[in-house]
Amino acid sequence: MKIDILTLFPEMFAGPFSSSILKRAQERGLVEIGLINIRDFSTNKHHTVDDAPYGGGAGMVMGPEALFGAVEHVARKYGSKPGRVVLMCPQGIPFTQAYAADLAREETIVLVCGHYEGIDERVREALVTDEISIGDYVLTGGELPAMVVVDAVARLVPGVLGEALSVMEESFSNGLLEYPHFTRPREFRGLKVPEVLLSGHHEEIRKWRRRQSLLRTLERRPEMLKQAGLTREDREILKELLASLNE
Ligand SMILES: COc1ccccc1CNc1ccc(C(N)=O)cn1
Question: Which end of the chain offers a freer environment for a tag, N or C, measured as fewer CB atoms within 10 Å?
């Protein structure tokens, strides 16, 4: 999978992509991350990419020339239009695990990191296929959101996480929050591991984990329960949990 990032600050990406899973995924050729400096496509002698907004108002707007030039450069590089051109912006569609899975199926995607008060609308009209927001807050630029999207998408590319992916996705995408995890030592500063996890009773352990997921989801994200595909057993457990919470 090829991910090209259009940014004014390519140096921002050196850290996150030069370590751990993302580094190995690139070394293994599973993911190719290209950094393209939008400023290289500025069309004026001052190398500016922003300008004052028509209609007045505070701040500056990122103009169309450089962004169109950068996306066309990517298209020439692959000899075809990019599959998806994703603009990171606060007005975007909320980024979710499902959205990451959708993007991970593409051969090439371009992430556009905006700055200033925003970008010229003609970029959205003619180039952008997706607008994504990583949360309801405004950042100084789209770079951090782009790093989040690359991380979430790259780990879903077949081979990047190997068999660990299926285990993790199965627990996350079952629509509930994850159950608590424990590892050695059995007791740490007087804090013990739940006995059931030491019992070796796999069915008891499955039930305990499911109960913990239901409890955690009920307490923190009750709205997720509606579309979690609960079994009859789950509903029984929820009834008990609700009763105990209302005591
Ligand atoms: C086109 O980019 C912009 C357009 C308008 C304002 C700010 C920016 C850049 N800042 C961003 C980008 C994404 C997010 C997010 N919540 O995902 C937050 N801030």
Answer: C
Residue 186 to residue 191: CA distance in whole angstroms: 8
- pLDDT value of residue 170: 65
Q: Residue 146 to residues 100, 104, 130, 226: CA-CA distances in angstroms? A: 12, 14, 13, 30
Between the CA of 64 and the centroid of ligand 1 the distance, in Å, is 17
Of 121, 51, 109, the residue nearest 78 (C-alpha): 109
Q: What is the pLDDT of residue 1?
A: 95
pLDDT value of residue 172: 66
Report the C-alpha gap between 175 and 173 in whole angstroms. Answer: 5
Q: Which residues of the chain have pLDDT under 50?
A: none
Q: Answer whether 16 contacts ligand 1 (Cβ < 6 A).
A: no
Q: Ligand 1: distance of its center to the CA of 51 in Å?
A: 17
Q: What share of the chain is helix, strand, coil (3-state, %, to 5)?
A: 45, 15, 40
In the numeric block, the tokens 């307490």 are attached to 219
Return the best residue to mutate from 89, 95, 113, 147 for the ligand 1 pocket (most ligand atoms within 8 A of CB). 89
Residue 112 Cβ inside 6 Å of ligand 1? The answer reads no
For the chain, the farthest-separated pair of C-alpha atoms sits apart, in whole angstroms, at 72
Q: What does pTM read for this prediction?
A: 0.90
- CB atoms inside a 10 Å sphere around CB 160: 21
Which numbered atom of ligand 1 lies nearest the CA of 135?
Answer: 16
Q: Which two tokens stand for residue 169?
A: 């996705």
Contact (Cβ atoms closer than 8 angstroms) between residue 56 and residue 112:
no
